[in-house]
Amino acid sequence: MKINGSVSTGVFNLELSLEDYWDNEGDLDVGSVSAELATENDGDDTFDGGINDKLWINISNVYPGYEAWIKFNIHNNGTIPAIVIASINCSGCPNWDTMKEWFKVEVYLEGIEDRSG
After folding, report:
1. pTM > 0.70
2. Nearest to 67 by CA among 36, 116, 18, 33
3. Non-local CB neighbours of 49 within 8 Å, separated by 6+ positions
4. CA torsion angle for 21, 108, 65, 56 (degrees, to 10)?
């Protein structure tokens, strides 16, 4: 008897697109926010070469009451379902463990069907 077969686990391939970013500064011009997509091959995804799989956000000179918004899309080009996890950390912040209580990240998902049950 001879049996031939193949196994495929699917492809994990997320792509981000940046729509806009802004803050509540108005004319104050103290704090600032910027955002850009990483387009280099970072080696973490062999299926898309790392294209647009990271969104770098820079927020500086913040103060109590400062707010910033970043609007972006996540498109699943693969065949495996993905879970969105938002996190915030600070490179170069000497007191990040103390400071992080002042930061809040909110993620709003638009047009997503709730499949939780």
Report:
1. no
2. 33
3. 41
4. -40
Secondary-structure breakdown of the chain: helix, strand, coil percentages, each rounded to the nearest 5: 5, 30, 65
Phi, psi of 100 (to 5 degrees): -65, -20
Q: Alpha-carbon distance 43 to 49, whole Å? A: 7
Q: Locate all alpha helices (DSSP H) within the chain, ordered by sequence.
A: 96-99
Tens-place pLDDT, residues 31-74: 888 998 876 655 555 555 556 667 888 888 888 888 888 888 88
Residue 86 C-beta-side C-alpha neighbours within 13 Å: 11
* Distance of alpha carbon 53 from alpha carbon 70, whole angstroms: 16
Closest CA to 31 of 62, 70, 58: 62
Rg (alpha carbons) of the chain, rounded to whole number? 19
